[in-house]
Amino acid sequence: MQKTVFNPWTWQADLSYVQAVEVTEPKGTLYCAGQAAVHPDGKSSDADMRTQLALAIQNLETVISEAGYECRNIVKLTIYSTSTEEFINNCFDLFQEFVAKHEMKQAVTLLQVVALNDTLNIELDATVVR
Question: InterPro entries per the record (predicted)?
Answer without folding.
Answer: RutC-like_sf (IPR035959), YjgF/YER057c/UK114 (IPR006175)
